Amino acid sequence: MKRNIVIATLTAAALATGGTVAAFAAGDDDATATQRQANTSAQVAADRDDDRDDDASEDRTAVSGSDVTAAEAIAAALKHTPGTALSADLEDDGADAWEVSVVKGDGTEYDVRIAPDSGKVLGAQRDTDDDKDAEDRAELAAVKGAHTDAREAALAAAAQGTVTEVGLDDDHGTVAWTADTVKNGKHGEWKVALDSGKVTQDHDDDA
């Protein structure tokens, strides 16, 4: 009889211990999942910060190699190739040149390269990619009826810093100019309204 009681007691103790171990194991799994989620969130934030640092570094490199502003580059490109300017980009590889995209009256598009030190036209090449999607067509139509053109958008954004790029963005059907700037070593992104030329900070990439 005593032997049976002892066996029963030992069995109960073993079950209790196993339950405790299982509980600890479950707790460990929960903690691991929570830690894994925290690590993922931290990595996403770090990657976003790295992207911003890269943008700022590229902008500083471009600015240091250019004496010609975005507005001046656009004006020079349009003088050489009359039409509607859609964008201007100061290339990141040592400010090799401004590249201005211009659409002529017949619909043909040209990439006009402008020297960053003198504003001289280095060349113009026709864009042979005729596969324009609906968004491209909508942007072009919006620009043609706008009160603010690319040059004016660049001038407006210049109040926020040195403009390194200006272009178009269709945000849920609303087309606006966008501009990248650098000021005191910091990268900035802005939207410029097509109708009023009002400049607001672009928060789309902050999420």
From TrEMBL:
<feature type="region of interest" description="Disordered">
    <location>
        <begin position="31"/>
        <end position="68"/>
    </location>
</feature>
<feature type="signal peptide">
    <location>
        <begin position="1"/>
        <end position="25"/>
    </location>
</feature>
<dbReference type="InterPro" id="IPR025711">
    <property type="entry name" value="PepSY"/>
</dbReference>
<keyword id="KW-0732">Signal</keyword>
<protein>
    <submittedName>
        <fullName>PepSY domain-containing protein</fullName>
    </submittedName>
</protein>
<feature type="domain" description="PepSY">
    <location>
        <begin position="149"/>
        <end position="200"/>
    </location>
</feature>
<feature type="compositionally biased region" description="Acidic residues">
    <location>
        <begin position="48"/>
        <end position="57"/>
    </location>
</feature>
<feature type="domain" description="PepSY">
    <location>
        <begin position="68"/>
        <end position="123"/>
    </location>
</feature>
<dbReference type="Pfam" id="PF03413">
    <property type="entry name" value="PepSY"/>
</dbReference>
